[in-house]
Design brief:
This protein is 35% helix and 20% strand. The chain has 281 residues and is an alpha/beta fold. α6 runs parallel beside α7 (229-242).
């Protein structure tokens, strides 16, 4: 399977697209790959890889949910100009009509104490979570494709995963389920309220051992984000109790007045990118 080059200006970088990517474990979808400026001139240089959910919201306003994209390419180029990073490959995995089922952490809902939450989820979303299959697709099918086609670092420290809302949940879950694959996770406006304290506790118990991973969390105070703070504070407490060092292994940021939208995440995406890429060549 070969990518199609998208002929447009992406901040001096290049966008390539794998259309109709077929998986044994999940639904068919589009996968976009952004290559940073200088990629073709870098020879044997390798880059960190950032796997991102809701890929149609990252680069093109016409594809994005509210007509506003994250501007990931612009943000990374600004960080490159500052010398904060030498660049990164961004893999934008598009969502499907099964988005919530693919992004809801699956194992926590199998616990006996989560029976009622699981029943409500199946009722509201026409089925149980299928995130384990989605993650298998990323790890067993998408990642080998990226490693084969591109100058990508393949070690854990240089393999990042990031998303917002339900994409924040699945990013955290991915790092917990595959701690040897993903070394750093960005969780913007994590949608804790879909299951509340029960989900926070379950995810806290799954955390990788401290000192080996880096996590970024944030939340706003308006619209859907207004419900997140108490649950994020619980997660912060669990991080500390587990042995994570705030400011080193993880940070949590609160953004007063920020809503739950691509517009808000675009405005602050440089912050998680800077923290997650820090120290990576």
């Amino acid at each position: 399977m070969s990518p199609i080059r998208i002929d447009a200006d992406y901040s001096g970088g290049r966008l390539e697209r794998f259309s109709e990517f077929r998986s044994t474990f999940a639904l068919t979808r589009t996968i976009d790959v952004w290559l940073p400026p200088g990629y073709d001139d870098a020879g044997a240089t390798h880059y960190p890889v950032i796997y991102m959910h809701d890929g149609q919201n990252l680069f093109e306003p016409a594809d994005a949910f509210i007509g506003v994209d994250w501007g990931i390419d612009e943000a990374l180029v600004r960080l490159m100009a500052e010398g904060a990073t030498q660049g990164a490959i961004v893999v934008g995995v598009w969502n499907t009509e099964q988005r919530r089922r693919e992004y809801m952490p699956e194992q926590p809902l199998l616990a006996p104490e989560a029976r009622q939450v699981a029943l409500e989820f199946r009722r509201d979303h026409a089925g149980a979570p299928i995130s384990d299959g989605y993650l298998r697709m990323l790890v067993e099918e998408v990642r080998p494709l990226i490693d084969d086609f591109y100058h990508a670092y393949t070690d854990r420290d240089h393999t990042l995963i990031m998303g917002s809302s339900m994409g924040g949940l699945i990013s955290l879950y991915a790092a917990c389920e595959y701690p040897d694959i993903y070394g750093r996770a960005g969780c913007l406006s994590t949608h804790w309220s879909i299951s509340g304290s029960q989900l926070v506790q379950a995810m806290a118990e799954m955390l990788p051992r401290p000192g080996t991973h880096r996590f970024y969390f944030d939340y706003g105070t308006e619209t859907v984000d207004a419900f997140y703070e108490p649950f994020q504070l619980e997660m912060d407490q669990a991080m500390e109790q587990t042995g994570y060092v705030r400011g080193k292994d993880w940070i949590t940021r609160k953004f007063e007045g920020a809503e739950h939208s691509e517009r808000a995440w675009r405005a602050r995406v440089e912050i998680p990118l800077r923290f997650l890429l820090e120290g990576l060549s």
